[in-house]
Specification:
The complex is a heterodimer of chains A (about 150) and B (about 210). By secondary structure, chain A is mostly beta strands. Helices cover about 15% and strands about 50% of the residues of chain A. Chain B folds into two domains: about 50 residues; about 150 residues, Glutaredoxin. A seven-stranded mixed sheet of chain B has the order 2-1-5-4-3-8-9. The chains are: A mainly beta (about 150), B alpha+beta (about 210).
């Protein structure tokens, strides 16, 4: 009986653990605004959730030369974009990057980003490793990926 | 003895007068401070009223314009720059959304985008940029001094922040306000994109335009 129980537990553990590792960090709703002008930085937004504490170390994409993580610091009426090196992802907390707040700034774009296209973006996490997502390019006036369905 | 007594009374009298003077000064001073205190809120209003629409800039068609060219229309004024990836497109798209909700009344409104980064935002750049957001949007640029003077008249703060990895090595920090100015060019109110929906802002502005 005990042996069977252990076998079941081991089987469950073996079966579940790869899924757990994959699911420890979830990156969803990745989108960017279409470029208005060529050679201008573009902002990209997404949501990060993690079952365990993790840290976003960096972001890369083949469409841009450099990606910076920007927080927005409000100093009274003035907003300053603040370049942050890494982004803490606390356990169970949903971090939403959205217009007017935290965003990824894509610089050195080879081409303008056109509405309706997508591009891959890779996020490197300290524990979860690299996660690649497809980023949807929405219109220049888009406020988020869900506004159409809402 | 008598003269001694008189001196004594005189001393008391002087002493009393001295106390009365001190009391008068204290009460008067308190009154003065209170009066100033009461006057403080209106002085804040004076500060807001001091926001003026005054500028001499170049529009996105290359024409020199001043505030006089926009008088007679309600003006929505926003300061930003075209290398701004987040706040500026967000706010300009929001302004366009507000304009679309004015219907025919949009003819009574002049939406204006003034760059704080004139060395990169030439009239040609501004033309391409503003037209992407709304056909009515007017883009204004000029010399560094002319832009600084315009920002000063609107009490807009901006600064250049050195950032090695940014394009050309700098970013701009700025206040993300949309100013509503009356057809006479006087300050009416200030809006921020995050504070209300485009619909609510349109309703609010239309009510003021129609004197409600």
């Amino acid at each position: 009986m005990m042996k069977i129980l252990i076998a079941i537990v081991v089987a469950l553990w073996a079966g579940a653990s790869p899924t757990l590792a994959e699911e420890s960090v979830r990156v969803s709703d990745a989108w960017a605004r279409a470029s208005v002008l060529a050679s201008r930085p573009v902002a990209s937004y997404l949501t990060i959730e993690s079952a365990v504490e993790d840290r976003l170390l960096g972001v890369t994409t083949p469409v841009a030369g450099h990606v910076m993580i920007h927080a927005v610091e409000k100093d009274g009426d003035v907003s300053r974009m603040k370049h942050i090196e890494t982004l803490e992802v606390p356990t169970g907390e949903r971090i939403t990057l959205a217009p007017g707040g935290m965003h990824l700034m894509l610089m050195g774009l080879q081409d303008k980003l056109s509405e309706g296209t997508t591009f891959p973006m890779t996020l490197s996490f300290e524990n979860a490793g690299e996660i690649t997502v497809e980023v949807s390019v929405l219109g220049i006036a888009a406020e988020g990926p869900r506004e159409v369905s809402e | 003895m008598t003269s001694g007594k008189t001196t004594h009374v005189r001393r008391i009298r002087y002493g009393l007068w001295f106390l009365v003077t001190i009391a008068a000064l204290v009460i008067g001073g308190a009154y003065f401070v209170r009066t100033i205190g009461v006057r403080e809120p209106p002085s804040v209003t004076t500060g807001e009223a001091a926001i003026r629409s005054e500028f001499s800039l170049i529009d996105h068609n290359g024409n020199r314009v001043t505030e006089a060219d926009f008088l007679g229309r309600w003006q929505l004024v926003f300061f930003g720059f075209t290398h701004c990836p987040d706040v500026c497109p967000t706010t300009l798209a929001y302004m366009a959304n507000v304009l679309d909700r004015f219907g025919g009344e949009v003819e009574r409104v002049a939406p204006i985008f003034i760059t704080v980064d004139p060395s990169r935002d030439t009239p040609e750049v501004m033309a391409e940029y503003v037209q992407a957001f709304h056909p009515k949007l007017v883009g204004l640029t000029g010399s560094e001094a002319a832009v600084a003077a315009a920002a000063q008249s609107f009490r807009v703060y901006y600064e250049r922040m050195e950032e090695e990895t940014a394009p050309d090595g700098y970013l701009m920090a700025h206040s993300g306000h949309i100013y509503l100015m009356t057809p006479e060019g006087r300050f009416e109110d200030v809006f921020r994109e995050a504070d209300q929906s485009a619909e609510d802002m349109a309703v609010d502005v239309l009510a003021r335009m129609n004197g409600k």
